[in-house]
Amino acid sequence: MKIATYNINNINKRLANLLNWLEKEKPEVVCLQELKTEQQGFPANALRSRGYEAVWVGERSWNGVAILVREQMPILTRSELPGDDHDYQARYVEAAVRGVLIASIYLPNGNPQPGPKFNYKLAWFERLIGHANNLIKAGVPAALVGDYNVVPTPQDIYPTRSLDKNALVQPASREAFQRLLGQGWTDALRKLHPSGPLWTFWDFKFDRWQADKGMRLDHFLLSPQLTALLVDGGVDRWMRGEQNASDHAPAWITLNL
DNA sequence: ATGACCGCTGGAAGCGGA
Questions:
Q1: pLDDT tens digits, residue range A221-237?
Q2: Which nucleotide is nearest to A163 (CA to C1')?
Q3: Tens digit of pLDDT for each residue in A138-185?
């Protein structure tokens, strides 16, 4: 089973890019983030015509997450992260697919830091850690997939000091990510490729793509049962070079289910 | 360090993103 994640930065604006990529790479499951459309604006029919069923949580203007599955209906298990009844941002959707629980995650960016947005990021992270702990203690075969907005280690970003104050690289952000891994989750792309650049994001600004100055922000966290089935993974960098590209490229793994 | 990109809303210029 090939699972992909893609921060698409507006699904309707980039629908042609998405459909082209689906046809070329044929992932079975796709976790999308930053749909930037309200619930009714999701292009369900266009995706169904290409063989993909979907569950999604939309929001006007910002955020938005989805899970696409080829030739199969995902079974929606959650459309929000537990722990805060007053949080209405569309950042979490979860579904069962062929006996695997899959979450599509869009963790808050958190800039500027410090400030209320960074506090929200850390609070959201704590809720995720709590939920993930329940899943792993229950022995659920699960994959927590998406845009974590965390650069886990210094090797996950091009050499620079200019982002030292950025929320993506803060010790508190990295500590939360490590605490999540400490529950027993495996960072699948790093397990497959233990060292070196594995960029999934290049800023629109300046010459970041041309200079290949990127970051690794999009991650697959696998429960132990799924880690044992991990075969392959990578980043579809070619998508970042397309016309009308998102600032993220899709990343993917394959599991031998 | 700086530069100044892209998409949103609203219909200009400022916010959010990372």
A1: 999 999 999 999 999 99
A2: B18
A3: 999 999 999 999 999 999 999 999 999 999 999 999 999 999 999 999
Burial (CB count within 10 angstroms: exposed 0-12, middle 13-18, buried 19+), residue A198: buried
Quick check: A100 and A141 in contact, CB under 8 A? yes
The answer to whether the C-beta of A8 is closer than 7 A to strand B is: no
Tokens of A53: 């069923």
Residue A8's nearest CA partner among A240, A210, A207 is A240
C-alpha to C-alpha distance for A55 and A78, rounded to whole angstroms? 10
3-state DSSP assignment of residue A100: strand
A2 - beta bridge partners? A254
Cα torsion angle, A182, A195, A199, A114, sign:
positive
Over residues A24-65, the pLDDT tens digits come to 999 999 999 999 999 999 999 999 999 999 999 999 999 999
Q: Are strands A29-33 and A2-7 parallel, antiparallel or unpaired?
A: parallel
Write out which nucleotides of chain B lie closer than 7 A to a protein Cβ. 1-9, 16-18
